[in-house]
Design brief:
Blueprint: H1 19-26, E1 31-36, H2 43-56, E2 61-65, H3 66-69, H4 81-100, E3 104-108, H5 114-123, E4 129-135, H6 138-144, H7 149-154, E5 176-179, H8 185-199
Helix pairs in contact: 2-8, 4-5
Bound molecules: 3'-phosphate-adenosine-5'-phosphate sulfate (PPS) and adenosine-5'-diphosphate.
């Protein structure tokens, strides 16, 4: 039991319907596709386009998106390093539950720290975590300024803004790396789908 466990008397309940049972019912394996990158790098766009492509093929999916999660599950958290770490910890746990439910989970979070992404990866079985690096220069993200946040950050109205006043640690060996400043959304989705489809094939009976 981990030292972090604050509920030593909580007993793990064995289940009668397993992830494998659910995967068989769905006709595909479940896993976690984790999109990371600067604000404006294309995480949300690609999560939603990929989810549509999967849904169109009859796959069970669930998308977790930074802005939405921060309205509920993580509404108490801000953007300090510690809060970002706690944000990613909670999302990793929730994503793992959705993987257990048999879904292909698509998570879109800046998740700027390598160690936090690694912890999320460690929660799922080896091979069931696909890190998708939305690799886009700060210059292009700032030009896009989809939500007007970069302008605010430059004016000093938002502190700890990723890429400007808070760090972003790029993945070292992601399963998928996409230059979202040059590739089209369709090209990116095609590359993601190739990896997801290969890894979610059911093998054997
Ligand atoms: N200080 C600061 N830095 C970065 N981003 C900020 C900040 N304040 C608000 N926002 C908005 O919050 C979205 C990022 O939330 P995340 O949960 O993905 O962040 S993190 O993973 O905990 O770093 C991010 O969404 P995306 O633009 O989709 O990345 C922003 O809309
Ligand atoms: N290859 C691409 N992948 C994703 N987004 C792209 C791409 N090319 C251009 N874009 C545009 O970049 C913007 C990315 O915004 P968004 O998906 O909200 O980023 P994030 O979720 O990382 O903050 C959108 O306006 C999108 O249309």
């Amino acid at each position: 039991m981990s030292e972090q466990n604050k509920s030593p008397n909580a007993v793990w309940q064995e289940v009668s319907v397993t992830r494998a049972n659910r995967e068989k019912l769905h006709g595909h394996r479940s896993l976690l596709v984790w999109f990371t990158g600067l604000s404006g790098s294309g995480k949300s766009t690609l999560v939603h386009a990929t989810e549509q492509a999967l849904h169109a093929r009859g796959r069970r999916t669930y998308a977790l998106d930074g802005d939405n999660v921060r309205h509920g599950l993580c509404a108490d958290l801000g953007f300090s390093d510690n809060d970002r770490t706690e944000n990613i910890r909670r999302i990793g746990e929730v994503a793992n539950l959705f993987v257990d439910s048999g879904a292909i989970v698509l998570a879109a979070f800046i998740s700027p720290f390598r160690a936090d992404r690694q912890k999320a990866r460690n929660l799922v079985d080896p091979g069931d975590f696909i890190e998708v690096f939305c690799d886009c220069s700060l210059e292009i993200c700032e030009q896009r300024d989809v939500k007007g946040l970069y302008k605010k950050a430059r004016r000093g109205e938002i502190k700890d803004f990723t890429g400007i006043s808070s760090p972003y640690e790029a993945p070292i060996d992601p399963e998928v790396s996409l230059n979202t400043g040059e590739l089209s959304v369709a090209e990116c989705v095609e590359r993601i789908m190739a990896v997801v489809e290969a890894r979610t094939q059911l093998t054997g009976d």
